[in-house]
Amino acid sequence: MASLLRLYNTLSRAKEVFRPIDPAHVRVYACGPTVYDAAHIGNARPLIVFDLLFRLLRHLYGAQAVTYARNVTDVDDKINARAAERGSTIRALTDETLAQFHADIRRLGILMPENVNRPGERPALVEPRATDHLGEMTALIDRLVAAGHAYVAEDHVLFDVPSMPDYGALSRRPLDEMEAGARVDVAPYKRSPLDFVLWKPSKPGEPAWPSPAGIGAPGRPGWHIECSAMAWKHLGETFDIHAGGIDLVFPHHENEVAQSRCCFGTPVMANLWLHNGFLQVEGEKMSKSLGNFVTLRAVLADWPGEVVRLAMLRTHYRQPIDWTLRGLEEAERTLGRWYGAVGDAAAGAPPERVLEPLLDDLNTPAALGELHRLEDPAALKAGANLLGLLAQSKSGRDRAAVAASGLDAAAVEALVAERAAARARRDWGESDRLRAALAALGVTVKDTRDGATTWTVSRDGERG
């Protein structure tokens, strides 16, 4: 590689040169959705950010040299409660919710297993589900009990936090602060307020599995052990990068570290920890009580997924992002200009001037700035493709926009061609009449300096 990738490591609180454990097999884990309800727009941010990381690593190390595990939590209290409300099984609920989630994130340009996995080769992208990994979870819990890092109490298995002297190294929270938070609701069977659940008995009517550690009562795993088990299964005892939202640093990721390190006797669980910043809506924290809770599906009803993706990438992933209508409108205009400039050109190699900012801790604002400065259509297409943008051809995008708007694509293209012919013979009156006719259909045309014409469909359809 001509250049080195540098990433900000939450564990060290510094940018570090990324040096994979094995350059022939780079391994990344990201915490995915809990599938009990529609994803909100904040859920889209880590998906887009770490999809970009996956794309960049594949570019640097080779398409089949990277394994990315993006988990699905399909058992927890909220899922149990929602399934009970509906009178369905948790599998039926989570299958339905996950299918909706997949449909939404495909529109964001998120790479999916069918995009990257090749028959007969090591999977590049896996989406492990918690309920498919109960065997791995109980195996980890049994090992923790045997090693003296966990104990059984009143049909629960709990991790013994004081048994790990450097617990808290990831979040760097003072011990008294962690204890104060834990004491809000301390179960009487805990040895320490900081101890957390690895396994708990199920309530009557809830899903239950055979217990680990000989506790007898059937139950289900705690949230934290799920990710330790799935990461172990698909990436090994230690791997390269663990990613997630900044809200997961404590307690979720801190507890993952404790479980995995104490189980395997390793100095780290992952060498690098990446965390994306919070999302606000129009300057305020997103909250149902404030009435600004926005689902991803609702946003995608009004805006193409590519616009949403670009709007997210305009802010550096570690910074808080303010989700605004203005930001979406600016992203839409930018994509319109880029598609007009690229036309149906084929992508070349990603230009170094776009790649270099991405190698500096995924600096997407700087990379997008470089895209604005590119004049070569092939370079612009390739640079944008690396960020998961300009995935369509200009003509294909136009046809999709027309189809989504309910317009007759052939009729629109015929009017555009008629107008181009009128301009060629310098019949400006006819050209203006045809422009007005297209505008009445919701189609805006723009004439470029080189004599070409671009057109977009207005807001009423799938924006062009």
TrEMBL record:
Domain tRNA synthetases class I catalytic: 18-332
GO molecular function annotations of the record: ligase activity
HAMAP family: Cys_tRNA_synth (MF_00041)
Stretches assigned to the Cysteinyl-tRNA ligase anticodon binding domain: 410-451
Enzyme Commission number(s) from the entry: 6.1.1.16
List of residues binding Zn(2+): 31, 227, 252, 256
Originating species: Methylobacterium crusticola
Pfam families with a match to the protein in the record: CysS_C, tRNA-synt_1e
Extent of motif 'KMSKS' region: 285-289
SUPFAM superfamilies linked to this entry: Anticodon-binding domain of a subclass of class I aminoacyl-tRNA synthetases (SSF47323), Nucleotidylyl transferase (SSF52374)
Motif stretch ('HIGH' region): 33-43
Organism taxonomic ancestry: Bacteria, Pseudomonadati, Pseudomonadota, Alphaproteobacteria, Hyphomicrobiales
Protein's name in the database: Cysteine--tRNA ligase
InterPro entries reported for this sequence: Cys-tRNA-ligase (IPR015803), Cys-tRNA/MSH_ligase (IPR024909), CysS_C (IPR056411), Rossmann-like_a/b/a_fold (IPR014729), tRNA-synt_1_cat_dom (IPR032678), tRNAsynth_Ia_anticodon-bd (IPR009080)
